[in-house]
Specification:
Length: 364
């Protein structure tokens, strides 16, 4: 049940090899003892009993912050989402305001499912920045203005009186795509997130690889063009400064004025020549970084997510071509390059999974 989140009794019988009658008896017994929860469902037009772990085993909360949005979810220990909210943020939002908002949104969501704060066993927060693993503090000043020096886990633990985990959003998105999305069943994969910034999450031997300090996967700050444009990290020629959302929007300002990244994607898909060129150029630059990562980690699959990934082959085609030209292995064994399946919820779903995983580890 932890692996699948929930199954019907018929699916449980198929997964376990037990007879439907045996499964029915076991489910009835575990439901009466409060371990499982059942609810009527419909599958393929037929009524069925959907079985999950009971909520009384505890709830987890998850929050994902991007440069312009926050998403909050409440889930049970089977990773079933019970409530979810999304809210836009100002560009230079501050940690104190948004952590206050997190607690208020969480309280409202708990009310909506008739639960109390005491039922929340743990919380996982995703941030779009490199983080020091031991402290949860952003590793480089200026990457996420308004959050520098803030020990997010410590601040929220004081308010919740529960264990709080903080991780890079790309790591969490990589975990979610590995569990439920485009890299499911793949042992070694790379997730590249292309939004206002660019980040990557590495799945090595089925586990998220965070490196010694927790900052592995910062592909957005890989030098692509020596002495190139200044990046928000303070270096020059970083991939993000050339192919990130902010760089794309700045390059199109004279053509289309002030746009959002999702609007660039819409224009590109409608055939606007300047937007098509901007997205394709970004794909080629990202392809250089993807090829470098491939030569180092030898992944089976590269998954591309984030707002720009919605452009599909307009982005992936040039990216794939660059990787094919630059990766060291022959074409028949080079990594697949595919679009992420989980969209803008990937990091949030990964935060839920990480929270549940951490809860099970903590409880033995």
């Amino acid at each position: 049940m932890k692996k699948h989140g929930g199954l019907t009794q018929v699916e449980l019988a198929g997964a376990t090899g037990l007879s439907p009658a045996s499964v029915s008896n076991i489910v009835k017994e575990l439901s009466s003892s409060g371990i499982l929860h059942t609810a009527p469902s419909t599958r393929s037009g037929r009524r069925a009993q959907y079985v999950t772990l009971a909520r009384r085993l505890g709830l987890v909360a998850a929050v994902d912050f991007s440069e312009r949005h926050m998403r909050v979810a409440l889930a049970d220990s089977a990773q079933t989402i019970l409530a979810e909210k999304h809210m836009p943020l100002a560009r230079d939002h501050r940690a104190d305001n948004e952590l206050d908002r997190t607690m208020m949104m969480l309280a409202d969501m708990l009310d909506s499912v008739d639960a109390g704060m005491d039922e929340v066993l743990t919380l996982c927060v995703g941030l779009p920045a490199p983080l020091v693993r031991t402290t949860g503090v952003i590793a480089r000043r200026g990457i996420l203005r308004g959050w520098d020096g803030i020990p997010v886990a410590e601040v929220l633990e004081r308010r919740l009186n529960r264990r709080v985990f903080v991780d890079n959003s790309s790591n969490l998105a990589a975990l979610a795509e590995h569990r439920y999305g485009s890299s499911r069943g793949i042992n070694t994969s790379i997730f590249i997130n292309v939004d206002d910034g660019i980040g990557a999450g590495l799945i090595l031997n089925g586990e998220v690889f965070r490196g010694r300090n927790g900052t592995a996967g910062e592909v957005g700050h890989m030098t692509i063009l020596e002495n190139g444009p200044l990046c928000r990290c303070g270096s020059r020629g970083c991939l993000e400064a050339i192919a990130g959302g902010a760089a794309i929007l700045e390059g199109l300002r004279d053509h289309l004025g002030s746009l959002k990244l999702n609007e660039v994607v819409v224009h590109a898909m409608a055939g606007d020549a300047a937007c098509l060129r901007a997205v394709a150029d970004a794909g080629r630059h990202i392809g250089i970084a993807a090829a470098n990562l491939s030569n180092v980690f030898d992944p089976e699959r590269i998954v591309v997510g984030g707002q720009l990934a919605r452009a599909g082959e307009i982005l992936l085609g040039p990216l794939r071509h660059t990787v094919e030209r630059s990766v060291i292995v022959e074409q028949e064994i080079m990594p697949d390059i595919v679009q992420g399946q989980l969209g803008n919820r990937a990091a949030l779903l990964g935060a839920v999974a990480h929270a549940v995983d951490s809860m099970h580890i903590a409880t033995g």
